[in-house]
Amino acid sequence: MLTLLKQELFKAHKQNRLWIWLLLAFIFPIAVLAVFKCTRNVERLVGFGGGIPYIYLAAIIYSALSISQEFTFGTIRPLLSRRFNRLSIFISKIVLNFIVYIGLVVSAFIGTIIAKLIFVPKADFGKQMTDTLTAGQLWGIDTIHLFLEIIFISALVIMITNIVKSSGAAIGLGVVLSIGTPIISSISLSLIQLAPILKWNPLTILIGSSMLGITPDTTLNAIFHLNSMSIIIAYIVYIVLFYGIAYYIFRKRSV
């Protein structure tokens, strides 16, 4: 497993597109605050200078391509010929994806801090943003939510990529899920009103996970008819299910 992971890291290191994506994650908040003076406030800094949609997009594309390109370019054959089993290969790719997600967020974080120092040096992360959270605390919680949502959507994207054997379709679905949050919320709430059992649908769990830590259980119950523990358990079950289906198909695919 360690050998496989080292190989995956080496391959990623040699891919120019990965460094371009990381560089863009770093540049994005600086460019936004440089061009749009109206964004020079602590609220925009908490949102990585408006870079969250880009982080989503880069993570989704990388996740889809990490699996599909092994079959498209036939690079899966050398791995299997060296007697690496498919489970090890699959896990190494998931671990590398997680490392890339962290890299994107760290790059955006560094870019945001530099943008703050240049354009809004007086911005106070101790500013009260909600009744209980400062800007700094809200940024930390929002970053955790960002990871949770990326992992959830990327797991779904990887599963779809394996099912339809097309990264394009999976990327399209991932983009819709990541940027169509208001529409998804409306659809999810409508489904719950139609039939209470539909509160367990993946859209509800995705939206609910983005509210953990900042929304009390009473509000979650009123909106989704679920408490925070139920959302966490369902989130974990869906992640295991998505990756389980993706691996099952990955194991059966011919090379």
Please provide a written account of the structure.
The chain is built from twelve helices and no strands. The model has no long low-confidence stretch (mean pLDDT 83). Helix 2 runs antiparallel to helix 4 and helix 4 packs antiparallel against helix 6 (86-119). It starts with a helix and ends with a helix. It is globular, with a radius of gyration of 20 Å. By secondary structure, it is mostly helical.
**Mean pLDDT across every amino acid position:** 83
Succession of helices and strands: HHHHHHHHHHHH
Got a strand count?
A: 0
Say what oligomer this is: single chain
Label the overall shape.
Answer: globular
Q: Helices and strands: which structural class?
A: mainly alpha
Q: What level of helicity do the residues show?
A: over 70%
Classify the beta-strand content into a percent band.
under 5%
Low-confidence stretches: none
Cα Rg = 20 Å
The number of helical runs is 12
- How would a crystallographer describe the biggest sheet? none
End-to-end CA span: 21 Å
Features:
single chain, mainly alpha
In brief, what are we looking at here?
The protein is mainly α.
Strands, helices and their partners?
Layout: H1 2-14, H2 16-35, H3 42-46, H4 52-72, H5 76-81, H6 86-119, H7 135-164, H8 167-179, H9 181-194, H10 202-209, H11 217-224, H12 228-252
Helix pairs in contact: 1-6, 2-4, 2-6, 4-6, 4-7, 4-8, 6-7, 7-8, 7-12, 10-12
